[in-house]
Fold these 2 entries.
Entry 1:
Amino acid sequence: MTTKLFGEPVRRREDARLITGRGRYLDDIGAGALAAAFVRSPHAHARVLDVDVEAALDVEGLVAVYTYEDLTGPMAEPLPVLIPHPQLHAPRTGYPLANGVVNHVGEPVVMVVATDRYVAEDAAERIVVTYEELPVVVGVDAAREARAAVHEDVPDNVAARHHQETGDVEPALAAAPHTLSFTQYIERSACMPLEGKGVHARWDADDASLRVYSSTQASTSVRAAIAAKLELSLDRVEVIAPDVGGGFGVKIVHPWPEELLVPMAAIRLGREVKWAEDRREHFISSAHERQQRQEITVGYDDDGRITALDVHVWHDNGAYTPYGIIVPIVTATQLVGPYAIPVYRVVVESVFTNTVIVTPYRGAGRPQGCYAMERTMDRIADDLGLDRAEVRRRNLITPDQFPYDHHLTFQDGRPVIYDSGDYPGLLDKLVALVGWDEAGALRADARSRGKMLGVGMALYVEGTGPGPYEGGHVQVLGSGKVLVSTGLTSQGQGHETVFAQIVASELGVPIEDVEVHTGDTRRFGYAVGTFASRAAVMSGNAVALAARGVREKAIRIAADVLEANPEDLEIDEGLVQVRGTPGASIPLRTVAVLSNPLRYAFDEAAKQATQFAKAGSDDKPPVAEGDAPGLEHRDYYSPIRSTFASGAHAAVVEIDPATWEIDVVRYAVVHDCGNVVNPMIVEGQVHGGVAQGVGGALYERMAYDADGQLQNASFMDFLMPYASEVPDIAIDHQETPSPLNPLGIKGAGEAGVIPGTAAIASAIEDAVGRRITSMPISPTELYDLMRNETAERTQASLQTGVPA
Amino acid sequence: MTTSIDPPQVDSERTVSVTVNGVHREATVPVRRVLSDFLRDDLGLTGTHVGCAHGVCGSCTVMVDGDPVRSCLVLAVQVQGAQVTTVEGLARDDHQGGQVLHPVQEAFRECHALQCGFCTPGFLVTIAAGLEARDAAEEITEEEVDELVGGNLCRCTGYANIKKAVRHAAATMREDAR
């Protein structure tokens, strides 16, 4: 078949508009709309004593000012706890506008609406808010100490205590031939999409309907939240995610205060209102991720096989918990990675701090879990004097052990049962790809140039494609155009292309005829959202099922017309034909016309379907019982549980002992996401993930001072990798299809980022012979570590004496 | 040289005349209007994107008299009389009613050098300006590639395919120059 496109590196269909400046991002919409700007808290923790807007009222062009006092009904109540969990015993969320207390710098206090953003900011600048400062909690250690409380009624700062165990860990540890205990830290970074958040709202008073555009990863749920908060019937609200300039997790959180306040203002003013987040706002009022303190105790035998693992994580959730304990759960459950751990106990204490909220950032807790597990492997190898790859190999789940049940409960409330994989295969490929066994020669070469070289590796398993469901709708028009829609949103993953590939392959039509729409509640009202590498798995399978439904109907109708046996029919290049009988065919577009019995011939093609043209039995109704007019089908994919993708990364770092600059000179990725729809796009996802992984390992951190002021809230100071910081990446693929879904696919979106911090920490430790216990690490920190006489040396370095 | 000028009021206005993508455009705007907002809001050319508004990310890059410029750091009044090229102006008329993409646009599509596409206009304009300023007949070096992509931020692609696209575009332009 010529239309088999599944698995091909098809060029992206979204690119034509994006490379010519015809993309339609949030701030490109609504020219002439009123602009909103916000007065945000300059304090990390304070009581709001007074808001004086008087001076702003003189600003020409000011339209409205809103404070908490102006919020009514559900808008005056706290924002929703999106994902409740029984172990989240003290959930706390903010208000759309501060209600008496602010809990982090950047929390919105006043919304100003004016004729344009310049004027709105002029007015916002003149508003005087009087605060009474309160004690501030910054960092997990301060939160644990609880000398001050973020929320008065949560004196220990603990929002949740998440606990899972697969056996009795204490006796298992006591019986272990060897044990090790250590503590390590990982710091905050953030998604930092190049486009910030943004909302545009238009109220049609005559129609009593609201149209909202939001740069979101979850338009259907934003819609539901707006309807609930603004007390509108769901059918009067539509939400559309236009072109979205990157998400990486931050835009899955909703409703953001602005997503409610902008529509509220649009309704009250009867005018279009827009807010486009600026970069500083994004730093101080969106979301961050990753900060944890990890206390690990591991028991193992003489061969390095783990017998018991006990992990206690202190997780910084920031000021509020709108996204529940998803990140802690993901860390807790994905920590075990590709390894068979006989007895495992994990406790994650999720603590409040007076900082920006912590919600999923690409990886969503997995990079931390991987960092815990992989650094544990490195410790065991070092303790026993074994090769780090060998220790990993001895602990891997083997291909004959699938499905492998970890006896844990995942973020979707379902069991962590790995569906398929070949982890020894990944490791073998990685060792070959990076040249692991030739590290000695690389090291000697670097030494001859006065550099220190180290290699490191990290393996991961990533639960992808969690439910509950996604849906797809496929419709063939009389023109032959195939419309595909799914409610899930896109932020650059190429969904217009991959879903078109899937539908074109399933239906047997040229991809040029397929048009994909995502994230538009007018087209598809039921969806969950884009997160957890789930789009291809969930919506990919949903649109495939919908296409199969259309195909079945098309063949049924065509069989009738062609007087053929449906089993003898096939669809290729948009033509339904009798297999092996050239000429016995009917175009799919004609089938689409015939599928809708007509009275009126509105165009030439329609004549074929009108009541006097169409042959049919007088004994049957034109639309058969149980049938419906139109060549379309809607279907849903709801998985029994998540799929589990996997991979292995290795990094080679070179360190200059004069400057302690850390240079990643080689980076290797072996990747398994099951069947691949578009290898070009998957590779692009890996590249981007690795860049974020390198950023998280070496450059990016949220530098809060003790007062809760974010010291680096700009691209001048928060160091995201430019091209010069990203190494060349060697990629090898492995495909172990998932048995759980019709297409055999697993997600690929987050994979690239997960093992970066662990692999690079391992490589640096290998190079310098000092224990790396806190990531990211800067040249200055490495210098300090090397000068610190009490810094722990690795066994390997003590034995070889190198490096000194 | 010391020039004494009256400090303009933020709400004072000037009429700015520029040639944008070969078309004469004029608008009366407050003197504090930055070029990126002028292009986007006053002229309706929304292809130029603002990623940071402090001159670091490069998403807003446009050409002013052929040189790449961060339009978020330039006031509209500063480009009075200049030739401005935005991403919308990179393609050329094919004289048959259609458009021919610039080689760098073609290369971005061919090499999957964009994902969300938000930073893309800035990369395209920066790279196009750089490629046009060099001798197209010369084979491009890795140092040149690094230089051309090194000043813009992208959060999606990890840059590998952007570099590939630069090589691809340079090769196309070299072919065309022969």
Note: Chain B touches chain A through 57 residues (CB under 8 Å).
Entry 2:
Amino acid sequence: MAPLSAAIPALPRRYHALSIWVLYIVGLCPAAWYFYQAATGGLGFNPVKTFEHLLGIWALRLIIATLAITPLRDLFGINWMRYRRALGLLAFYYVLMHFSVYLLLDLQLNFAAVGGDIAKRPYITIGFAALLFLIPLAVTSNNWSIRKMGQGWIRLHKLIYLIALGGAIHYVLAVKSVTAGPFVHIALIGLLLFYRAIRRPLLNWKRGRRQPARAAR
Amino acid sequence: MPAYHPPHIPSSDITPKHIYLSRRNFIGAAAAAGFGFATAGDALAAPLNAVPGPYKLNEKLTPKEAVTTYNNFYEFGVNKEDPAQNSGAFKPTPWSVKVEGMVGKPKEFGLDEILKMKLEDRTYRMRCVEGWSMVIPWIGFPLSALLDQVDPLGSAKYVAFETVVRPEEMPGQSGLFQALTWPYVEGLRMDEARHPLTILAVGLYGETLPNQNGAPIRLVVPWKYGFKGIKSIVKIKLVEEQPQTTWKNSNAREYGFYSNVNPAVDHPRWSQATEQRIGEGGFFGTKRVDTLPFNGYADQVASLYTGMDLRANY
């Protein structure tokens, strides 16, 4: 069951490292472009809020992309595992920029207001918690940490599921009404998290189906 | 700052291109539909003449482009730029407003008749419940002037308003994900409705209302959050019971019937203590100002709510 993987030409191995760096650069392009637009009056009359929201939405998109790597491999045989770290780190950078814009440009370092928001407003509490949870993941996103931590690394990085859920809730609570845009992002996160719940039984079932076929041969 | 004189501003200087274009669309549509081109077309295109109103405000006006491109009008979409971008097909003429319910003389007002009311310049602060604000030079007339013409009965305690429903012209009213239920409805207590600050606006910045701002006629209640200012009104009904209001129906915990601007009562999800002035400060110096009780109109309206718990009646 891998028709899609056959349709996508395999990237020669010698370009793998380069393609990851290209992904980092391309991934940071939306932020750079929107920053340029905001600074030159291209984001309308509330550029700070618009920029802040766009960074948040891109952070969610990158989290969705990160979570999609495993199902893409399981279900379609597309192995993009080499891009997962870059996608996860990009998501962290976007969350960090999202928070920085809120802190510096929106509330203008009014720490009392920031503290009040984090303490009193559930969607900001959840968003801030997600940012904090992302820090250990970002810090350990390197080969050395994986070697050093072993099974602990895998357990730690399961936090991304909680972070994705938090990001989705943060988004739902931040909008006045859930329309098509928010719905699509939240539905994708829901679907990708749901996949984790059914992944083991699904893979076992697939393996079980393959076994008799092989025996018959 | 000197008083505002709309006739001194050449319309060519202040009318953005997309309004010309929507106007051309309108004229084309009007001609195609075969109704009075001269009357309707002129009524739309001509700048409005208004006399200075009673409430002066010495604050910097929000640029017209900001007023007409950054706002909420969910019938055209939920993003701030959606109303300006998606309202080109909306036809604000011909138009009429039915005034009915507990009145001695129910009446349907045609737009021509409405535009013959004594129009005044009313520059008001506008505070959105989302935490941003503007200063807008409206043109309109007191709602009470309209109510006087229909002979309200003593038993009428509230005024209910209703926005037009035209899914074919208002993209937000069709499709899979509709943000609210239609028609958009709003309401005021009778004393609020009759307060001299409460106006029906037919224009801004010296001209008739652009589609995205609620053409051809909308409510402006400057001491309440912006969503109370219902747009593109087709019906006004005087009633005995407190009427349904759209945002309260959508989320009663967050939006109340009164919705008076109040820095001391936070929205459940965000603070209402400060507001961001749109069109000032730019990207690196957002202008944040303290929100005032009743949006700065406490001297005029606080007495309407004497003895009322404003925390419970948010």
Note: The CA atoms of residues 126 and 166 of chain A lie 6 Å apart.
